[in-house]
Amino acid sequence: MDAVIEADLERYAEWRRTYWTEGPGKLITHIEYERGGHRLRRPVRRSAPSLSRQRGELVVLRQLLRWASRQGYLKTPPEVTIKARRTPDNRRPSFEPHEFAHLQKVSLGRLGDPIMDGSGALVEARC
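and the corresponding structure tokens:
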């Protein structure tokens, strides 16, 4: 355990990201496990782990390294981080003043619609 260095942890993080898509996991067709005395199979999800999953796994890894440090197996635990790319900003732009005025006019016009009552809830239309 005392031979683990930061470079090893970075290689692990990269291996973990690519295992199911480019690594040895790409050849696995299904995962078998046992639950309640029954053997079950499920298909493999062929995608990289999400950023939140990677962070969660690193929390466990950090806890393991801190425990090893407290037990005397490591002098100081190596720092473990994820180098995450920021997702592109795809927020929708806000309404322009004329668009908002049109939206408000249409919404207020619908309040007087005969199939709407004053509370804004739909009333059953009678034919």
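(Above: one complete record from the training split.) The chain has a mean pLDDT of 83.
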